[in-house]
Amino acid sequence: MPAAEDTDLFDGDFLSRLERVRLQLKRILAGSRRAERRSRRTGASLEFADYRNYVSGDDPRRIDWSIYGRIERLMMKLTEEEEDLDVAILVDCSASMRWRPAGTQGSSKLDLARQLAAALAYLSLHNLDRVGLWYFDSSLQKESGYQRGRAAFHDVLRFLRALPAESAATNLAESLGRFGRSQRRRGLALVLSDCLDPAGFENGLSAVTGRHFALHLLQVMDPAECDPAAAGDLLLRDCEGAGELAVTAGPGLVSRYREEVKAFRENIKSWCAKRNAGYSFILSDASFDDVVLRMFRRDGLVR
Amino acid sequence: MNFLFPAALFLGLLAPVIVALYLRRPRRSEMEVSTLMFWQKVLERQPNRQFLGRLRNPLSLLLQLLIFLLLLLALARPEPARPRGGRSTVIVLDARARMQAENGEVFRAAVHAAQSLVALAGPGNAIAVLSNEGSSQIVSPFSTDGKDLRGRLEALAPSDGGGDLDDTLALARRLLAGKSGEKRLVVISDRPGPEAADIEEILVGQPGDNAAILAFAQRALPASPQSAVVFARLGNFSAASRDLELELSLDGRPFDLRKFRVASGSEADFSTVVPGEMLRSGRGFLTARLVSPDRLAADDTARLALPTGQNLRVLLVTEGNPFLEGALKADPALTREILQPSAWRSGMGKDFAAVIFDQWVPADTASETGAFFFFGRSPFDAEGEKRPVLQVELSEPQSPLFWNVDVAAFRLGMAAKFDVPEGWRVSRPLENAGEPLVLALEKPDGTRVVATAFDTSSTNFPLRAGFPLFISNVVHWLAGRSPAGENGMSAGQTYVPAEAEKISLHPQLEKETAKLAGEAPSLTEAPLRLKQNGFYEVRSARAARWIAVNTASREESDLRTAQANRSTLFLHRGWISLHLWQWLALAGLALILIEWRLHHRRVTE
Questions:
Q1: B142 part of a folded domain
Q2: Is A36 a residue whose pLDDT tops 50?
Q3: Structural domain includes residue B334
Q4: Average pLDDT in the B383-410 region?
Q5: Between chains, do B603 and A232 touch, taking CB under 8 Å as contact?
Q6: What is this structure's pTM?
Q7: Which residues of B touch A245 (CB under 8 A)?
Q8: Domain tally for chain B?
Q9: ipTM, 2 decimals?
Q10: Which of B25, B29, B39 to mutate to test the interface with A (most CBs of A within 10 A)?
């Protein structure tokens, strides 16, 4: 377990919750085994995959004699080959992820994203996968490098705790494109972002899936972004410096705003579905346990 | 255009303050958001809103200045320019009985129309209200106080009687003649009045069917004076024949119900006898009522005050006169007592309804109080020989003393000559060559005296059938009763009380008879316009009697002549008849709502 000196987002309470989540997941996922990732190849693992006819040169130890006893044919028992996995966790640390509604003291989207990144890294390391973390905003800001083993979780926490001092505007195409180009192995990319890129999210996410990475997007948004408490004559200022906009917010305008956000979410979800990518939508005020235990299972992020 | 309160215009100096306050309006609130892309898309899809938004601010200032201007003008109370002398309006409100139709709805509509007109009263527009309740009444003289005028209109009630509108119109024209400037004469009625160029009409009625009791009268039955013959006439003012049921009640208790089929536009007569036995107890209040209700209730009931059967005590002071004794005996309504002249004492007359002195005059008649009948000799006889009488003339045929008395065969030999006393109200119902043969005297204190210039020996009158009637009539008159009975009056007529007479201000209805005896009604000696149907009590010093008042008017009952709602006026509906300043205030209010809708609502929501 991590050391007790970890504070802030990753204090002892968080870590104990993380351990509890892992144990609960273990109970829920009874039957699954550590370090077992199905690969497309058959190999020496104990997980049954298929039967095929014996041919000359096959390892006679893998002949299933019980089948022979029943049908008097030599059949080879095939098992899945076990292989470790590169899990890349990319955390959006742009200004919009750090944004909080005026006058609120709660967690930002980035806070929740970092906690979720820690949880995902923790679970992956326990699966003996290789885990690497990245911060990005307008470009890739910081990289932890792939690590394996549970002991690496300390380095994960250290990385997540050390946020880049400055944050820029979101540029998914640039940052995720650079990530995609830098990867040589296939793996699983977990992207935690609000996807609020005025240039669009498609190019950035395509750069990840185009490199044969399996993608799971965790879109984190603040409730105030989905249902703003805006009313009256307002001068809206973009926290990423995209300018200002004068609006007179009435019920009608806010209603149309909500519809626009909903359409945006549906667009991302549809895009992910078409590309066989996973998608989770998370509100920043959601319970951490609820997100990990319920939402991740529902969205297929954990089995 | 005149301003009643021009000083309010100085408030216009505050307009720059509004502009300054507007310019100081707080700037937009700044709000940091995570992204503008959603807001931009929303606004891009609503270009018309953006256009309105650009216009909104200067429009808001314009509206606020306009609102300020309207309120300022409203405060200054502008009035359209009036002709010199202003406007004078006389409203003639028809308050005759037929305006009570439809349970008073017609009259209420008339009052409502009048109130819409008086709402325009104000400086430069004086309004007077007249009503026609049988006679012309000034409800309000010229006034500019709309509130006072409305209050007087609300207190108005229609009469139960008819009347002529011409007198009221003439009065209205006289009132307007004394005014300069613009003049208007507005008549509010249910039927068209006389066509005249200076009259504007508001008609509020609706034509309809109606049935009515047009006449209700009685007289004593000559063969049995204590019984009454009652006569009624029913009218059907409908487009079709109607079956009418007439209920007769005595002192509030029904005793007869008759059915009549009356053709459209026709009348049916009916008479019956009310026996004297029924009249002996009770107050003699006879009521006829049409059972089926119709559009006008006032003419469905008619009333009569029948003479009651209570006997009168009469004292006959005589040496013996079989004619007088027989005449008094013939009237069952009289209880006679006979006294020798020598037994007469001063003051005895107070206990009798009448005292008859037969050819004898007490020593001091001046000090006596009571009702006296001097037969043959009287204190008013002139000294000297009696005069011959050649011809008898009934100079006052309507005199109650000679009701039902035929004097055609009256022969008279010699008659005394009267010195007609002063200080009495004198009537001479029977004369000969200008000289009275019978004197009927009445003092202001109620003392009544009758004197004859003849006795039983000088005439054939005691042998005639009319003699007992004459004696009976005299006694009843002396007792304050009408021998012929009261046939009532029509609503709308004015009753002028006689000397020492008073009449109750308000009528009583037959169902209230039980409490009549114990109550002292409000009485007046002044002439009284009989506005409502019912029984009015008339009191004199010696007796009390009742007058029945009924509608009894074909013109009021015939509602077929009413006309549907129509007006020659443009401004008679309440919501239109607002003052100019009220319109300005309403416009200001409407602009406030528009401004709030366009601007303020968006800021505060």
A1: yes
A2: no
A3: yes
A4: 83
A5: yes
A6: 0.48
A7: 36, 39-40, 43
A8: 4
A9: 0.80
A10: B39
